[in-house]
Each structure stands twice: as C-alpha cells, then as structure tokens.
Amino acid sequence: MSPLRAKAPRSREKRLDTLGAWLGPVSAASAEFVAEDIVQRIRTFAQSSHDDLLYALRILAGIKNSITIIHGPRGCAAAGLYHMAAGCNTRWVVTNLDERDTIMGADSKLRKAVTALHHRYHPEVVFIVGNPVVAINNDDIQSVVKELHEELNLPIVPVYVTGFSSQNAVSGYDTALHALLKYLSGKSPVAEKSETVNLLSVAEHPQDRAEARGLLEGLGLTLNVFPDDAAIDAFRSAVAARASLSLCPDAPEYLGTILLEKYGVPLIDAPRPVGIEATGRWLKSVGTALGATQAAEELHQRKADETRRQLGGFSLKGRSVYISLSSANAFSLIDLVEELGGEVAGVTVTHLDRLHSRQLDALAARNPSLQIHVSDGQAFEELSIVRKLAPDLYVGDATHLAQIARLGIPIVSLETIGIIGYSGVVRLVRRIKAALVNRSFEASLVGIKHPYQESWFRRSHNWYIKREVK
C-alpha cells in the first residue's frame, strides 16, 4: 500500500529511529545505530523547543500564490508570526477556535474561512493546517476539503499536524511533504518521463538555491526546483522527472523516498555540498548518475581553483570550533572546519537518526572521542558544554548566539548567509575572519550575568537526559 494513502506519515521515531536527546562520544552514537534496536532518550526537564507546526509552516510558506489557514486557537498563529519575521511572504489566517468550537466542532468556521479567502485572493492552492487542539477533537477537516474542492474547483490540502505524534520537530517537514505529494502530484505514476531533474530544496537559504542552480545548469541540466519558492505545478512535474537530487540529506528525505517508491524517480545519493571538496563530491555524484562525469570534474576543478585563490591561504590551524546547527549542516560544517585546518571541539545537532549513520561512522573513525550533543532549544545544556570546552570560535544559527557571546567567544551566525557550494565557502570564511578579528561585540557582553545559577553549571551535562522506560 502506498504511504500516501494515510492521512499523515509515520513518525521519524518509527521510520528512522530518530533521537532528540543524546550526549556522548561519536563512537558510542555510531555503535548504537549499528544495532537493530535504538533505545530512545527523553528529557526530564526541557527548557524550550520547536514543534512540528513550525517546521510544516516553513515549507508551506514557500509555495507561491498560496494561502495557509491555521485551523485552531489564535495562540497557534504565533507560528505564522515566526515565519513572517523570518521573511516569508505567504498569506495566512487563523480560525480562532474558542471553547465552544472545540466541543461542538468548527466545520462552519473553516468552511467560511476557505470561501472568503478564495473570493478575496484567488489563490492557486489553500492549505489547512491542523494543530494539537484539532487533533484531540478530531475535527472533520476532510469533509470540508472534499465539499469545497468540488464547489470552488480549487486544490485544498489538509496538513494533519498533531504536535504530539513525534518528539522531533523535523517530523513537521515529513507531514507537510506528505500532504503536498498526496494532493498535488497526481493519482498515478506518469508513463512518459521528461529530461528534467528535481532539485529538492526544503527550507534552504535563497543564496544556496541560487548557487546549486548555477552549478547544475552549468552541467547542462534542466531543473525543477521545489518545494521552496515553487508553484503547485512543480509537484506534478516532479513525478515525471528523470531523477531527483537533494540539497540536504535530512529535510527532503521523505520527499525523495516517495518519489522513488511511488513514482519511480531515481534519487541520486550525494553529500550536502558544503566545502570545496564536498561540493566536488556532490557534482561527481550528479555527473556519474546523469552521464556528465567529465563536465562535472572540469567544473569542479575550475571552481575549486578559483575559490582557493579567493581564500588566499586562509587556515583555521590551531583554532578549535564549536558547531551548533541542524544535523545536516552540522555534519557538513565538521568536514569544512577540518578541510580548513581547524579542530572541532564539540557539536550540537537537532536530532540523530539512521540517515546519519554514514557520517557518524566516518567521524568515529577520525575522532572517536568527539562529543555529540543532541538537543533542540536546550540553551542551558549547550551553554554549560561550551563554557567548559572554551573553543576559539562558535558557529551556529541565531538561537543561542547572545548567550554564547557572553562567554567572550567569537560567534558566527549562519542565519542570514548561504553556505552551499564554492561561493558559500567564500562567504563563510569572510564571516569567520571578521569574527576572529573584531572581538568588541563579545567583549561588551562578557560582564552581563547569565540567567542560570552556578548550581546548574555544576551538574553533569546529561543530567536531564534519561533512557526511556516502556
């Protein structure tokens, strides 16, 4: 049976043994994922974390000419505000369910919202996003979708986010992609294939998409880039593509797997193209799969030589770096730091699962004692770890930068720059150079007291991480 027949995908814990809590050497993590059964960890105290609603909305916000209806209490609309602040331009509303709606049902509110938005904006597609309240009440979204789809002749896509089916927010990507494929890609495989190559881009920086597109078009490929910044036609075109290529091995995994299993679109196995050598391996994988090996090698040689000239012999030799990023970015940055001659002091990632087995094995062979910290939003844990390690540089997203800066450690944020490809290396090195030279920001924050008592820092870093007992 096709997995798209279900309302939502299986959780990442069931599909990939995903862990959201872990602290230990990379050698232990590597050994654990070799085993058939993975022991889940839980936190007895969690400071904060993202949820799957945020991740689902992040994908939907990138679909052109769409409207998203957050079907739930107005507090759930805070997720929409988060993405507006991040620069997304999608239209969204919330149905603002009250106590009566949660008891008696809110079909009429949802129906009214869809109809009004259709007549006001004439979108190409409407997304109805559930939430924990609707999941608990079992509100009948499907009947509204079926009725109004026929009445308005409009694609309406229900996205069944529950908030509690998974402990890992990355499952929200799977939920949104499941819905998009189910309702927008067509009912059956396409007999006639095209020469187009799918470039799977999920929540990528625009600079990264542009860099990847330029490199692949340099090989003579015709691309269908989606779901980021794509129209709904891209999903129908995707099922007839020659092959699929992912920019990230994590976020679009479900999308590539379904395109392969249901529609027979081959998925090219390629590393994330971060760093000179990794970008070369990425191009080589593409060239080997699509019969453009020589062109890929020539492109890499030319771009690599040009990039090394731009770097001017820059090296991180003698410097230690702490990395705190999404899992795919973190593992790719480890390789880049080592490529630049630096030492990785420690790593915080959002999750670990079987998709990372290859990276864990390779890292365990090179540096078996390297500590891997798995958390999403646990600032106090990460701060305690970084304070003890005292690295020369911290590379992360915007989540904990201010608190790390209070330690006097130079910080580099990847929130606003693309890091993929040859241009990404140059941009990142420029940020690193600036951070190492200009220490005034961190110096001005050193005197500001942290919000945590010293007793917190005296505890072991994995104090709240426990094995799950069933």
What would you say this structure looks like, in words?
The chain is α/β, with parallel strands linked by helices and 470 residues long. It has three domains: 52-162 and 166-184, 3-Layer(aba) Sandwich (Rossmann fold); 197-303, Rossmann fold; 314-467, Nitrogenase molybdenum iron protein domain (Rossmann fold, 3-Layer(aba) Sandwich). It is built from 21 helices and 16 strands. The protein has helices at 12-16, 26-34, 52-60, 78-85, 99-104, 107-121, 132-137, 141-152, 171-184, 206-217, 233-238, 253-263, 276-290, 293-311, 327-339, 357-366, 379-389, 401-405, 421-437, 440-445, 454-458, and strands at 22-25, 41-43, 66-70, 91-94, 125-129, 156-159, 197-201, 223-227, 243-246, 267-268, 320-325, 343-349, 371-374, 393-396, 411-413, 465-467. The strands form four sheets. A six-stranded mixed beta sheet has the order 1-13-12-11-14-15, with helices on both faces. It has a four-stranded parallel beta sheet with strand order 4-3-5-6, with helices on both faces. A four-stranded parallel beta sheet has the order 8-7-9-10. The chain is globular. It starts with 11 loop residues before the first helix and ends with a strand.
Rg (CA only): 23 Å
Level-1 CATH class name of the largest domain: Alpha Beta
Strand content: 5-15%
Outline type: globular
- Kindly report the CATH topology of the largest domain: Rossmann fold
Strand order of the largest sheet: 1-13-12-11-14-15
The rounded distance between the terminal residues' Cα atoms is 30 Å
The biggest sheet amounts to: 6 strands, mixed
Total strand count, please?
16
Number of domains: 3
On the 0 to 100 scale, the average pLDDT is: 90
Instruction: Label the CATH architecture of the largest domain.
Output: 3-Layer(aba) Sandwich
Label the structural class.
Answer: alpha/beta
Assign a percent range to the helix content: 40-55%
